[in-house]
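Lab meeting tomorrow. Please check the following:
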Amino acid sequence: MPIIKTDKKSIIKVSIHLFKVNGYSSTTMATIGKACGLMKGSIYHHFNSKEELALACLKYIHEYFKNDIFSIAYRQDLSPKDKLILFTKKVNAYFMKSDGGCLLGNFALEISNTNPLLKDEIITYFQSWEAALECILIPDLGKERAKAQANQIVSATQGSILLMRLYNDPTPFTIQNDTIVKLLP
């Protein structure tokens, strides 16, 4: 295979896929390099370690969700119901076309107790997800119920993503998304 030049963003995108499908521990820098058409050592020109690359992957996904999904909660031009529908539709679109489930959920299970740096980013991502949902739900449910419901939605969504991956069947995820949309009148 010819060795090619690639940029940080391309390495991150390939790494996200490999980490989601194979897990953190089973994905080596050599595997990532090969998938990118690089020699293993070439990745170290962009990232000092596998942990640094994994953190960049987590931040990349978090940034995507923040800009393309979580931001829906703070729009003034939509009703809470319309926000919830669009939010859920975008979450659905992301995970239905995403091999390997949720990288942040997968990493939370696999390495969060052994890697505080990655754990902090994972926590921040899930807190952002819950805060966005809480913002959508507050007008109809009030602060306390909205906070509890947002936590339940994220938990149930992550569980349904896990089941979707385990059974190779989107039904649990689809049912969960349908349930979310019915929360508001």
In short: The chain is about 70% helix and 0% strand.
